[in-house]
Give the backbone structure.
Amino acid sequence: MKRFVETIKNIWGIEELKDKILTTLGLLLIYRIGSTVLLPGVDPESLTQLQAQTSEGLLGVLNAFTGGAFSRASVMALGIMPYISASIIIQLMGMAVPAVQKMQKDGESGRRKLNQITRYLTILIAGVQAPSYLANLSAQGVELTLSPGTFWFLAWVTLTTGTIFAMWLGERITDKGIGNGISLLIMVGIIATLPQAFFQEMLSQVNQGAGWVAFIIELFALFVITMFCVALTQAVRQIPVQYAKQVAAGGRMAGTPSARQYLPLKVNAAGVMPIIFAQAIMFIPITILTGIGADGEGASWMITVFGNIQGFWYNFTFAVLIIVFTYFYTAIQVNTNNIADDLKRNGGFVPGIKPGAPTAEFLDTVLSRITFPGSLLLAVVAILPALAMVVGLNTQWAYFYGGTSLLITVGVILDTLQQVESYLLNRHYDGLMKSGKLRGRNTQSTFS
């Protein structure tokens, strides 16, 4: 406890870090206030059916990402999700479109261009998603206090503007605050429902369930799963790398001969993105079949299977997609050819492996081997909420037992703590840990 208090004093004693933390908290507060503001023309008393629709299933996951704004018909109902969709599209285009690949390699100037394209694409996606959301409001019997034409126009503009404002808040947090702004907005939306879910589950177990013992066991299981997610996020395979002694000006030898370092390859280099990809794919059949009004036996079976997140076939398909997308996204994130070229250019080599193509082949083999258990563990984490629901946990409470909610929360907290620790160490203070080092994700943030 004494060390904790001392660390807080050290953090507060760094003026720049204190200002960044206060700025971040202020902008996050603005985002949360915005998520409670109702769309113009919506009768708040008629949202019961909408809230029931978003209490579980895939819409429940989307509602959790927006911190409940989706079910409240808020001006922030779309949240930051259009920006995430735009970021994913740009990353995928980087594999197939030469112009995007060139911008990715152009350093800071290319990054600025890609960010600008992502912003425009976000506005386009939000503009397309807003009418779908409004159509769902009508389908759920939400009553209006304005004429339909006026409401649709105002709500369409408001929802699109809300997404733009959320995107601006995220970028301001990244520039002026601490941590990755977009990821923090998602995390805040997720944990906003935690207190309510906690007390509902506690009251349910104490009053109707097995009592305090069962609830304490649930808390212990949540702690174990959280530690498992931390280990999965930070796990790396260290590849030894040696650098030959270099000749400095005047013929003198510089550097330590054969200095050995390590190249960390993450067991889960794809982060949470495979789960997001898989959830998007799982949502497509229901959307299409519902949209075209299909009523055949096969269509009913598809809607039943893919609409029941507790069902066996849903979770089996979900897990297989996650394993496939883990390999796919790891291939996007980790370019072994570029790593091998960089090592060769800087005089580095893996002991026993020839520089160049053999090194790239060796790294690719190692990456494939460690990605397989990483993908399996990620799939297990993803289906844990469904298992928690099967054993009787409250739906909202079960979402915190794995899946995107827990992985995003763990990853964002580790990234933010890593930045705080960097400030402390740069000012010659002790870090956040007595020993070791916060590795975070050692890559770009998921949604940066």
